[in-house]
Amino acid sequence: MTIKAKFLGAMFAAMTITAPLALSTTPAAAAPYHDMHHPDAMHDHGRKPPPRVEHRSRMPHGHYRWRAGEWHWSHDHWIWAPGLWIKF
Questions:
Q1: What are phi and psi for residue 3, nearest 5 degrees?
Q2: For the segment 4-38, what is each residue's pLDDT rounded down to a tens digit?
Q3: Which of 10, 13, 26, 68 is the most buried (most CB within 10 A)?
Q4: Can you tell me the distance from the alpha carbon of 57 to that of 84, in angstroms, rounded to the nearest whole number?
Q5: Which residue range(s) make up the domain with 79?
């Protein structure tokens, strides 16, 4: 299982446990208007650009795995985060 998959699984578990508590104790009027209607939360960023072809550097000595690069949305455009070797 990848680090990203573990992280997403943990986040999903935390959200399913805490979300009902937050919804039951916090009235809708308590959240500021600008937080509820943030433009990035409602903006459709469109499709991600296609993945870039990356040339892996030589694997470092020890226990490493390659994490492929990926696109991230930042403000108003897509940014490429290059792949890297992660020690495990």
A1: -60, -40
A2: 666 667 666 666 565 554 444 444 444 444 444 44
A3: 68
A4: 9
A5: 62-88
